[in-house]
Specification:
Layout: E1 3-7, H1 13-73, H2 77-100, H3 108-113, H4 120-144, H5 147-167, H6 172-192, H7 196-203, E2 213-219, E3 222-228
Antiparallel strand pairs: 1-3, 2-3
Length: about 230
């Protein structure tokens, strides 16, 4: 918040500093309050996001390796088919976690600590970055819970079931079972994804719009015109 002082007479500097100092203190307190609020939200969400992201990445990776190994060592044709389709599905899921659900929240709090905050100007820049990280984290979480993610999971699961049923000329029940297992895993992944920052971003006290106001105030040597925005 800036304050411009235009006086009808030459003003004594010491007397003209009070409004500016009050406005500066108010602005500093506002920055600190907002920054503290965002830092707390990002810190609370970071650990759950890391556990979710790393956990699913490891789970899908292990399933891909395990099914691939079983595909090569089994003598059962149906098992080989199931493991081959399953390995492809979990490999695609691994890529999905890596590239389509990056979850900014898993590193946002740590990233924010790298920004200096010893001066008011630095804290202002840090608040800008904090707001960007909060917005990006909320958007990532929202996408992970969106209908698009459900649709992708449904399509991939359906494709696997159709390959088992039609591609390998297996019973319809086998295709349904493959679809049901893949879909269940996908839905569990979606519904266990952290989503705290979606609500946090909605609740974040947005900065008030910039507005200008004129004020005539009595001054020791005349009248002072104060322009605040």
């Amino acid at each position: 918040m800036r304050c411009f002082l235009l006086s009808l007479f030459i003003c004594v500097p010491a007397l003209a500093q009070s409004p500016g100092q009050n406005l500066s203190a108010e602005r500093a307190a506002n920055i600190d309050s907002r920054l503290s609020w965002i830092e707390n939200e990002l810190t609370v969400e970071q650990a759950p996001s890391q556990w979710w992201w790393n956990g699913w990445l490891c789970a899908y990776g292990a399933l891909t390796v395990g099914q691939t190994a079983l595909f090569f060592i089994t003598d059962s044709e149906t098992t080989k088919q199931d493991m081959g389709v399953g390995a492809v599905e979990t490999l695609l899921s691994t890529a999905g976690v890596l590239f389509f659900t990056p979850l900014q929240a898993k590193t946002a709090a740590s990233d924010l600590t790298a920004y200096p905050s010893s001066t008011e100007k630095e804290r202002g820049h840090k608040l800008d970055e904090a707001e960007r990280l909060l917005k990006q984290s909320a958007e990532d979480e929202a996408f992970g819970r969106s209908w698009i993610t459900h649709a992708i999971g449904f399509t991939a699961s359906l494709a696997g079931g159709l390959v088992i049923w039609k591609g390998f000329d297996r019973p319809f029940a086998d295709g349904v079972l493959n679809f049901a297992i893949a879909m269940a895993i996908t839905e569990i992944q979606i519904f266990t994804q952290p989503s705290r920052l979606i609500d946090a971003y909605e609740k974040y006290p947005k900065r008030p719009p910039v507005s200008a106001a004129l004020q005539l105030s009595p001054h020791a040597l005349g009248l002072a015109l104060i322009i605040r925005d």
